[in-house]
Amino acid sequence: MKKFFLSFVLASAFFNQSKACAWYDPDYDYFNLFTQNIIRDKSLTPFLLTYSSRFYEDEKAVIPNENIESWQKYFGNQFNYRETEYLVNHLSLQALNAIKTGKTSSEPILAKLGNSFYNKYKEGIDYLIEAKYLEPYMRISYVESPDSFYYRSETDNKNATNLDYDKTVAALNSLYNSARNPDIKLRYGYQLVRFNHYTRHFEESINAFKKYVEPLNIKSAPYYLALDQFAGAERGLGKNEDANWHFFQVFMNSKSLKRDAFVSMKLSDSASFNNILKRAGNDKEKTMAYFLLGYQDFNDPLPMMKKIYDIDPESEMLKVLGARAINELERNYLPVYYYQNPETQDTTGKTTEQPKVNDKENSEKQELSLWQRIVRWFKSIFGSKSSEKIDRSNDLSDKQYLENPDRIPFYNKAEYSYYNNDNDKPVNYLSDLEDFTDKIKDESKDEFWKIADAYLKFLQKDYEGSSEVLSSIKTNDKNYQSQIQKMKRLNDIVSHPKISSDFEEHLYKDYREFFEEKPKKMETDSTAENFGYEEYTAPSTQEFLKDILANRYFLQGDDAKSFLMNNQLSDLRFNPNLNLAKKLQTFFNKKDKSTFESQIIAKNINNVGDTESFFNLIYGDFAMRNADFANAKKYYEKAVLFSGIPLPEGYYDYNTGNFVKYQNTSDLYNGFSNISGLIFGHNVWESYQSPDDVSMKTEDFINEFPFIKQNMNKLELADAVLKLKQTGKSKGEISSKANQLIGNLLYNTSVLGYYREVFVMDTDNSNGGKYYFGNDESPFRYYYKNYGSNVFIKPDNFDLSIQYYNNALQNSGDKEQKARILFQMASAEQGKYYQWEARQPSVSYNDKNWEQKSKQREIEFANMKNEKFRTYFTQLKQNFKDTEAVKSLSGSCSYFDYFMKK
Q: Which superkingdom (predicted)?
């Protein structure tokens, strides 16, 4: 069998999981308002809820190591924990030998020991010397199967079999027998058990434990180190149930070995847990077994929590399961993003990159589950029922929301469901968990349960009840105090359904730190050619509160403020919106801004060059798309100071596969200037990546209109179109040609045209979210967060280009030219079909008849296309089949050729 290098596979796995490389971490999909690691027993920190890795990690949560604490006690507590850890784990073998021989050493810690240190702690130092000698070899020998698929890449191939077995056992046995201190004797016993385990002498390892460890009857840190090795030897002999039981003992009694013991248990099914539960002989063992059951099968933790509560209401394991449960609920109530647009297809056949619900959820079942979660979350948060739509017509505040505050606040008691990964059955335990915490908080001495109860009330929209519970808590625990303070502020801010000027001043006065930006650290990613990027940081409470205010502003009609809470002004160009632009301009020009408006909101009006030109450019573009050329010219006259959209550093060369940097950008289209006269031409073939002089061809009669320049800015373009429009009002061929050129312009700047970037604030025609045949409705229903990824560009009105083409058709007496015009009209009509198709509901992948319904859907679409959207193709076929224009077009357009022949 061919083998691959394991190191490469591991590197790939790391790349996919790394935040810096993959730009994704599932634990950053929620706001973490309830800080689950406020639990006091930090040894249980790894078992808090995480989706990013096997275990939860917290750099601030230091799990105490009993082995170091044991050595600290052995050395008479004359060293602190850090010094002891350095002495035991990091001091070199040479330095230890220097202590023994009385030689000087450069190690600072040796100066603190003194000359009499070795004589006082001789047995301990001798043990550490032996342990330091053995440590590089203390790994099990790897026996590779002949059919192994991977090569293993190891930098150090040492393992226990590299040592002389008989000599090592004899030496350790001699040292064990000569040791007088029981703790040191126990440590040598541990080394004998470990050495035999790692050399695969499993029976000898078990016997060593029974002979050297058990008789000492000392249940200290070295005992559980030895028990862990003993259980490993049992597993090596196939005694899995006994091994799991002894790993369970290590898990239960050790602080620092819990994570490794859990991994070693190999508890892969409920039967294994039940076997442990059957062997549990006391309340401590039963409590820990119930914890493992609740941890491993976390669909609904309440049954196991109740069993633990019946045994020990003060159990730390109970708090861990409670923290995990709250964290799971929060994840489903508070996702960071609400994605609304499905992946779509560009007309060129390329996939338009749309944000997915969740990149890590690849299966159809999982995507559906998460989507359902998000929909339910927004229903509960923003008070919208599935059959309701927010009526914000005429950009006025919606009175139904403002007069009925119960419909606005974040979190509703309305339906809450989320789906587990096994069978997609809804699980609902929010109310049950609240009942449980409400009960336990009155009986427990730990304020954790009051904090949990207050938070669940917050999720249930009971802000007053939450605040009452928080006010009743008296604690000196700094972690608890921090969580309580955060939640008091959340209750205050979230409970306000309307953001008035007085409340804005309250926000600025009391919560300014929540809204003031902190500089973000820049990281360098070698995989991205050393381009700098902002550090990927977890969503913060500040960002959550910004979402709250953005939502409130949105519902009360303050769109500009809503937008600027989550976006910078320059983001508007990613989805230029006429009404939003007008409101942003009004806010920008507002003279009497409040302190909150000027210091917090207005700071996101970032540099877009001349701001008035920026807005007028948007207005002019909208006017051009609507064929309102006179007003477009007026707006463009006010936009002449526009400095241009930031241009890319280069482009991807499809022919060579290389990225080519621009040497000079002065002649590139920048959103206002450098528009080619070919914008009035027609495409020779549909290739957006080819140069315009390859894809586009000027009309033969273009010289009859000398005011059309080869290179124009938008003001010059609008002026040229106005002159064409005036000419088009006449009769005859000159009128036909003028109208045809206007039709070409409107088509070429539509989603189907080569110059589709010109009136949508983009710099090139490359594929992306703007080229999307979506609904006429804006996707923004709750706030403008993630504005650049929520695709919405007002759909093209293809009837406008068809109207000008029709004027050209009516005024032309040239059959060849009429054929060309009809083909352009047919192309525009095809755009109307794409818009219709995009509005049709899709067939769910979960439908058991998906394939049959999809085929039927294709048939219906084909029929609709031929009945409603083939008007001009049909005219070409019936009346112009013999023209040279049709013959030429059939040769260059395979679809048209197919239509003509069928």
A: Bacteria
Structural contact between residues 743 and 604, judged by C-beta atoms closer than 8 angstroms? no
Per the CB < 8 A criterion, the answer to whether 750 and 758 are in contact is no
CA distance 562 to 584: 10
Is residue 565 a contact partner of residue 783, using CB atoms and an 8 Å limit? yes
Closest by Cα among 69, 46, 6 to 317: 46
* Structure confidence by residue, pLDDT tens digits, 271-329: 677 788 889 999 999 999 999 988 887 778 899 999 999 999 999 999 999 999 999 88
Confidence of residue 820 (pLDDT cuts 50, 70, 90): very high
Looking only at the bridges linking them, the beta strands covering 650-653 and 658-661 are antiparallel
Instruction: Write the CA distances from 566 to 515, 551, 553, 706, integer angstroms.
Output: 11, 10, 12, 47
Give the structural domain span for 242: 157-254
Pick from 647, 644, 649: nearest CA to 663: 649
Of the chain, the end-to-end C-alpha distance in Å amounts to 53
The most confident of 93-102, 451-460, 892-901, by mean pLDDT? 451-460
Does a structural domain hold residue 409?
no
SS3 71: helix
Name which of 471, 472, 517, 514 is nearest 493 in CA terms. 514
pLDDT at position 44: 92
Weakest mean pLDDT among 767-776, 843-852, 893-902: 893-902
Structure-block tokens of residue 399? 């009175």
To the nearest 10 degrees (0 to 180), the angle between helices 798-811 and 815-838 is 160
Packing angle, helices 733-748 and 714-728, rounded to 10: 140
Count CA atoms closer than 13 A to 870's CA, side-chain side.
14
Burial of 609 (0-12, 13-18, 19+ CB in 10 A): middle
Residue where a domain stops, chosen among 254, 273, 295 = 254
With DSSP H G I counted as helix, E B as strand and the rest as coil, what are the percentages for the chain, rounded to 5?
55, 5, 40
Sign of the dihedral defined by the CA atoms of residues 532, 533, 535, 536, in that order:
negative
Whether the per-residue pLDDT at 479 is higher than 90: the answer is yes
Q: What is the DSSP letter of 135?
A: G
Question: For residue range 531-582, what is the model confidence (pLDDT) as tens digits?
Answer: 344 556 778 888 899 999 999 999 999 999 999 999 999 999 999 999 999 9
Same domain flag for 767 and 890: yes
How far is residue 363's CA from residue 681's CA, in Å, rounded to a whole number?
Answer: 46
Radius of gyration of the chain (CA): 36
CB of 139 closer than 8 Å to CB of 160: yes
Residues 118 and 168 in one domain: no
Residues 112 and 219 in one domain: no
Locate 757 and state its tokens: 């970037």
In whole angstroms, give the CA distance from residue 46 to residue 320.
10
Domain count, the chain: 3
Q: Sign of the CA dihedral 260, 264, 268, 274?
A: negative
